[in-house]
Specification:
single chain, mainly alpha
Length: about 270
């Protein structure tokens, strides 16, 4: 019988529709026909449940999930022709959406927004995760982002370095003015701050260490031994290989130690 042939050949909707038409005409059918139609109806209903889910997913904008549901429907009912048409429509929409994402990514990169460009590429990759061209573009944009981040970090380091140089320059100038005004204690304070601030491997570093040596020597010469020691210690931290500073520190430590011995034995010497 025709209904059985339709069912066995995978034409399930035709099988179901044929039996319905037969019943409307008042016709009867054998059990084998009913069983074939029942099997076709089961396949048709299962496929339709996937199709309804696909339509809901498509409405919600989840084209990838909609495609998957339609493929499930065709897995159940391979010869469901209008579902094949729906699937082709979803795939066209996916291709159009992917092309839109790629165009947006190119535009965003052209206006120096690689992070947003990568976001669009990721959206395209979600639709076509196996697409090698999209993968390649993501890899390339990642390199762009990495290079941009490296440049930004380098610029920030340069900015911080320049800020430290500017601050140290201000402290050095203040130390020189205080010395000119006869305020040796203030000069020692300012040059100590400059020693703490100044980065190594900049031209100003050597100038500050040299001036610190001078202020330390003047402090030492005027009896300000602890002040001289503090300035020279900071200078030695800034320039650990400075042999002259090592000798200065050795001398001032020796002087302070001897004077402290005199104090402990009852002397009245004041160590500054």
């Amino acid at each position: 019988m025709r209904i059985v042939r339709l069912s066995s050949s995978g034409e399930h909707k035709a099988s179901v529709d044929s039996l319905a038409a037969l019943k409307r005409k008042g016709g009867d059918c054998p059990d084998s026909t009913s069983r074939a139609e029942k099997a076709s109806r089961s396949r048709l209903e299962a496929a339709d449940s996937f199709v309804r889910l696909a339509m809901k997913q498509k409405k919600n904008g989840d084209l990838k999930a909609a495609r998957g549901s339609l493929e499930e429907a065709l897995e159940v009912y391979p010869r469901y022709y209008w579902v094949q048409k729906l699937l082709r429509g979803v795939e066209k929409s996916m291709i159009a959406e992917t092309e839109s994402f790629l165009s947006e990514a190119h535009y965003l990169e052209s206006v120096n927004d690689p992070e947003a460009a990568r976001n669009r590429l990721e959206q395209a990759a979600m639709l076509y995760p196996a697409d090698e061209e999209i993968k390649s573009q993501i890899t390339r944009i990642d390199r762009v982002i990495e290079e941009n981040n490296a440049r930004a970090e380098a610029a920030e380091r340069r900015s911080i370095l320049q800020a430290d140089i500017d601050r140290a320059t201000g402290e050095l100038n203040a130390a020189r003015k205080a010395e000119q005004d006869g305020k040796l204690d203030d000069s020692a304070y300012y040059i100590s701050q400059a020693l703490i601030i100044i980065p190594r491997d900049v031209p100003l570093h050597g100038e500050i260490v040299e001036y610190a040596q001078l202020i330390g020597m003047r402090s030492f010469s005027t009896g300000r031994l602890r002040q001289a020691r503090e300035v020279w210690r900071l200078a030695r931290v800034a320039d650990p290989d400075n042999e002259k500073l090592r000798k200065y520190l050795h001398e001032v430590e020796y002087r302070i130690e001897n004077l402290e011995k005199i104090q402990r034995s009852g002397g009245s010497i004041d160590i500054q």
